[in-house]
Write a structure and sequence with these properties.
Blueprint lengths: L4 H8 L21 H9 L4 E6 L13 H17 L2 E3 L28 H17 L4 E6 L5 H14 L6 E4 L8 H7 L4 H4 L5 H10 L29 H25 L3
Parallel strand pairs: 1-2, 1-3, 3-4
Helix pairs in contact: 3-9, 4-5, 6-9, 8-9
Length: about 270
């Protein structure tokens, strides 16, 4: 029998149930009222995570919202472990290729793209908004490769502007892609099976968290020549792999945020 998401969370004891509850104890900004946010910042919760995901094709076996689902979950656990952090809403519209003629993931129905300069402006003003409300450490947690250069550019631009203030923007480089792919190879998996898009990494993560987001009967080996949109052999994924990969990414993000909060103002 397939376990539901909530059942997996409780059974694995991977994160406190409060992380998903719409209560003042939630780490998710959109679950809180403005007085709750004000009071949290006043009490020392001055770190905020901006997760960036994407709405993109992930082959025939994985839903379009994979990045948004995974990055929200992981950002929530990161915030819980930091104990003094909140999580902004996921940015779901990111650069995915050109519209006309379509390129990249835009060649597949359902993908939604934005130009890099538009993505950067939205990300910049999200950070400016949070800075205005009293957050001092703004961490950009990007779950997709196409988001990374824009995140780095926004962080560099704002840190230059805010150099004489206590506010810092952190582009997290240790989280994505993280050590998961290399770790799978140490477990005996071949690099071509691990893949680079909608392969074993994300498939295994969803097997652990929410297999309902997968079409298990559509797990086909993806190559650049067969054009199905994925690269790798998702059928070799396991929930146990996913649990370990998630933990490595979460731990990497927590460690880097803690480090940058200490070193970025020196």
């Amino acid at each position: 029998m397939t376990m539901r998401f909530a059942d997996v969370i409780f059974a694995a004891a991977f994160t406190p149930a409060a992380i998903l509850a719409q209560t003042p104890a939630s780490v998710f900004l959109e679950d809180l009222t403005w007085p709750e946010v004000r009071d949290a910042v006043a009490a020392g919760t001055t770190t905020v995570i901006i997760p960036t995901g994407g709405t993109e094709q992930n082959g025939p076996h994985m839903v379009l919202g994979k990045h948004n689902y995974l990055v929200r979950y992981k950002a929530g656990v990161v915030a819980q472990r930091l104990e003094n952090a909140l999580v902004a809403p996921v940015m779901a519209y990111v650069p995915e290729g050109d519209v006309d003629p379509p390129s990249g993931h835009m060649r597949f129905p359902g993908t939604i793209t934005t130009p890099p300069e538009v993505f950067e402006q939205v990300l910049e003003f999200a950070a400016r908004s949070l800075q205005q409300h009293g957050f001092l450490d703004i961490a950009l947690l990007g779950d997709s490769g196409g988001n990374q250069s824009s995140q780095a550019a926004v962080a560099e631009r704002l840190n230059r502007e805010w150099a004489d203030t206590p506010v810092r923007v952190h582009h997290l480089t240790d989280y994505y892609p993280g050590p998961g792919d290399a770790w799978l190879v140490t477990q005996g998996e071949r690099e071509q099976d691990v893949g680079t898009h909608a392969g074993m990494h994300d498939t295994a993560s969803l097997m652990f968290l929410n297999p309902d987001m997968l079409r298990l009967d559509e797990m086909t080996v993806g190559t650049r020549s067969n054009g199905i949109g994925s690269l790798g052999n998702p059928a070799r994924s396991t929930a146990a792999y996913g649990e370990q990969i998630l933990e490595m990414q979460i731990a990497a993000a927590v460690s880097q945020i803690r480090r940058l909060r200490e070193t970025s103002r020196r």
